Amino acid sequence: xxxxxxxxxxxxxxxxxxxxxxxxxxxxxxxxxxxxxxxxxxxxxxxxxxxxxxxxxxxxxxxxxxxxxxxxxxx
Length: 75
Prior knowledge:
The chain is α+β, with helices and mostly antiparallel strands. The chain has three helices and four strands. It has helices at 2-7, 19-24, 57-66, and strands at residues 11-18, 39-45, 50-54, 70-73. The longest helix has 10 residues, at 57-66.
């Protein structure tokens, strides 16, 4: 909540997530035939809630902006 108050409600964080993380969290089935080298990018709201996952970093930023959100990169 403190972070959301400081940066505003329209900021989303973009961070790379791996296949294993997505399988553990239930986003992908455990037996999904996705190479472990595949990269995904998650958009998170200021409160940490995941709002989207895409397979391309540039598309993550484009999608955020299309929804009037301000994306920032997190490493």
